[in-house]
Specification:
about 180 residues; alpha/beta; 9 helices; 6 strands
Length: about 180
């Protein structure tokens, strides 16, 4: 956060010699950060800190905030319904409701995103001899299929982590976020 770029991402902008009040308001609205939330304790603490910071900015800056928070939760398979339920509960939290205009929630079904992504569908990794091969375009491989091919739980978790990180970065790039807060 000592970098000037990141300071400007979170700072409430005001009219000055270089920008009008309308330009400052536009900069505040366009300063969007992506927060991947796994719904585990660490990511929920980060979300809570950002939520408190937004509330603090509203009090200090007479209702203004310097950034927008976009919460992204990735899931696939049987997790989707449970994740939707937990996100709904998070949205209904009293503090979250106070920041409802500054916080947006996104749910990314990894299988859907994965199947629509050419670069992920075209490479299959072989963990026995560490080779890779192209998968024909007509072949439909799901994340579950890839994870099921892993020889052990550790390899499965590592591969899922790599896929999730890639999808989060791709989502951030596609939607032009200023920062990702891991």
């Amino acid at each position: 956060m000592s970098d000037q770029y990141f300071q400007d991402v979170f700072k409430v902008m005001y009219q000055d010699k270089k920008k009008s009040a309308a330009e400052a308001d536009k900069l505040n609205k366009e300063s969007r950060v992506l927060v991947p939330v796994s719904l585990g304790s660490s990511s929920l603490v980060l979300f809570d800190i950002l939520n408190d910071y937004l509330l603090e900015q509203k009090v200090t800056h007479r209702g203004k905030t310097g950034f927008q928070v976009h919460v992204l939760t990735c899931c696939f398979g049987d997790e989707v319904l449970e994740v939707k339920r937990r996100i709904a509960a998070l949205k209904e939290n009293e503090k979250t409701l106070k920041n409802k205009d500054e916080i947006t929630f996104h749910l990314l079904d990894m299988n859907t995103f994965f199947s629509n992504s050419k670069e992920l569908v075209t490479i299959l990794l072989n963990f026995e001899d560490y080779s890779s091969k192209l998968i024909p375009d007509k072949s439909q491989v799901s994340i579950g299929d890839l994870l099921d091919s892993c020889p052990n739980k550790s390899a499965r978790e590592d591969l899922l982590s790599v896929i999730t990180t890639h999808l989060i970065k791709k989502f951030a790039l596609q939607h032009e976020f200023k920062a990702i807060l891991w």
